[in-house]
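Regression test attached.
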Amino acid sequence: MPKISDIEGVTLAERFELSACLQCGRCTGGCPMSIRSPLNSRKFIYESLIREDGEALLEREEVWDCTSCRTCSSRCPRELDPAMVMRAVRTVKIEGGRIPKTLMDAMESSLKHGNPWGRSRMKRTAWTEGLSVNSIEEDKESRRLWFVGCTPAYDPRAMEMAKALARIFEVAEVDYTTLGSEEVCCGSEMLRAGEEGLFEELSEVNKENFAELEFDEVVATSPHCMNTFIADYGLKIPVTHYTQLLAALAVDGALPFGEEGEALKVAFHDPCYLGKQNSIYEAPREVLKAVPGVELVEFSRSRERSLCCEGGGGRMWIEGMGEGERNAQIRVRDAIDMGVDIIATACPFCLLTLEDAVKTTGSEGKLKILDIAEIVVNALDGNERSEG
Amino acid sequence: MSVSAPWALVVGAGVAGIQAALDLADAGTMVYLLERGDSIGGRMAQTDKTFPTLDCSSCTLTPRTVEVEAHPNVHLITRAELTGLTRRGSTFEAEISVRPRFVDMERCVSCGRCSEACRLAGKVVSEFDLGLGRVSAIGVPFPQAVPSTYAVDPAHCLMLRFGKCGKGPKCVEACDVDAISFEEEERVLRVEVGAVILATGYDLYDPADTAVGRPELGYRELPRVITNLEFERLSSASGPTQGKILVEGREPKRIIFIQCIGSRDRTTGAAYCSRVCCMVSLKQAVLSLEKIESVEATILYMDIRAFGKGYEEFMERAQRLGATLRRGAPSEIFEREEEVIVRVEDTLLGATEELMADLVVLAAGLRPGKGSEELALTVGISTEEDGFFKTPKRDPAGGLGDGIFIAGACGGPVDIPDAVASGSAAAGAALEFILGGDAE
């Protein structure tokens, strides 16, 4: 008998058909957190089916460890959705006010300032200073919207992604515009942290903007924004990731690379929201292969097996219970073993978690973490290589 | 029996089709036995040992393949497919396409000189050995092959592909009996038959399939990850390693068998249980323990299904011999520092672990044979949602009352004893249909 009731009075087991669970363990076996965290989706599902006291399950703090990478759901042989179970439990916890303080702050900031980083709306375009960036605020109209995203707009390190992309778009004469300081958080992380109401509010603002300005295409910097536009907004226009646009530009010969590139051994870290959740594996690799001098190598855990960096599902604002080596640290260690110069990624969260892992493992100077946009911009004709 | 009694047609000469053909022939019925491949015996011929008795598979099979080939009432045709079936009153007209072997069956003495002489000797990937061995563009798939006549592989032979082979085909030069002719052409036969038994068997699930594969298991990417059928070839004395279980030239000391690969998994298009893989893995674990000193053999399973006669006892034997059974279906396989890592939650411990292995054997499930769908259309029968031929619920072999009968794994996963039983059952039902006279 299913016991935990969710907010609509439908039990978890009923809502997610948990009685069909095989208890095979593939969800937990694939979970990037399961070795070092008490999080065990298989066991959680089992307990939700047999425990008399569903309330006890709601006390479990480990549900906050879920990175929403969805590996569990992709592996389930009965096509159940453990990741959604975790999200639903978070929602019930939030309803009861049981929410980590740091996440609460990010949510309040999203509501108040339109971004989870506690920064002012007016500062959203601060990164564009000194750059040529099209914006509707400067009457630069286009049917193609570049959705910059909160982290690339505000975080000093992730900002390099946005700057690099603006420069590439300028050089390649890409037709686009941005929403400038009108852009608000896409709400992806808030939804995955369990805050459905806040997501609704944020998404309504964006949807209205998109409709009013009659965009017929959205290109996102972050795979998380891209994914929520596809999976949760129900937009009727094409939504793509910037690596797809760059791959198309590379094929068209529209990226004027310098003739001789610096010889660099690069391993690509597949972001979960790009790869596992949207099957975009080739575009980022095509871009990297187009860069002169780049030798692309693969992690054993790449593509469908990519090791989640732990940055998703609101985890940028939740410390988590896990002990021991973080996945991003494992990733950095693996890359050093492989002798790579650069771990390339294509997501602001991966960029930040991996960069942090370089510091916490004392690996500065051994390798760099760069976004694909940064690698491309460094290789453009006449551009000095950045010091990274 | 009336002299004018019609022939029966058996499509597929695996163990089920052979059994059906022998039963019909022994009862006095004339039988056309069609085999798509070069030799008969089907999957059983690729198998090393059978469970639960650990009998040598080819020792059990070869007497039957030899008998059916030699049987005066059986007309065996290899490289043959059923391409048309038309009802004519109470009988059928069957259209059979026969691809050439390019070697005369009367003349060939199976001396093997052509195969040794072949310009591509040791360069052609062996289909029978599932890519584990290299052969020539002319030969027999294994020493006890029936028929023993050699055959040219048209996908590789230089003469057939390009019309020339160096200064002249070496096989022809080596053949003392002038058995080889590249002029032989495809033939179409039209025969009248009174009943048709389909026994076309199964294909193995491909874990690397682009549509329904499980790429996270690393199959075809990691050389130390193989399928259960590949293990059979490694373990078989007639296989590429003469029966030594070797991976990259070394004996594996840690072997992990993983159950339910492409079975009981909707995302792979198969919600059903393949029925044989649990016993196959238990058997392979026992073979490993017997062949390799101080080997660790671990089976990772969701449920062990040991339901047949003597099967549960075999499972106990495997356990007592040292096979370790751990409950949990692994989620992914990758490499770390030269080691193959299997990431699995042991569901009895509730703990996720990364197990190291020298060899991982994926217990790949059974799928309808390639071409089943077309064959169903040709014959005018329907398939189940999973692609296997539909069989009547209460009388699986009894056919659909129209002269068409199903035997073996083409009607759904079966093990060898069940395949043999269904071959006999289909033969009995077909015989009744033919002799009963009044077809509906």
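Expected vs. actual: identical. Chain B touches chain A at residues 215-216, 218, 260, 264-268, 302, 327-332, 334-337, 343-347, 350, 352-354 (CB under 8 Å).
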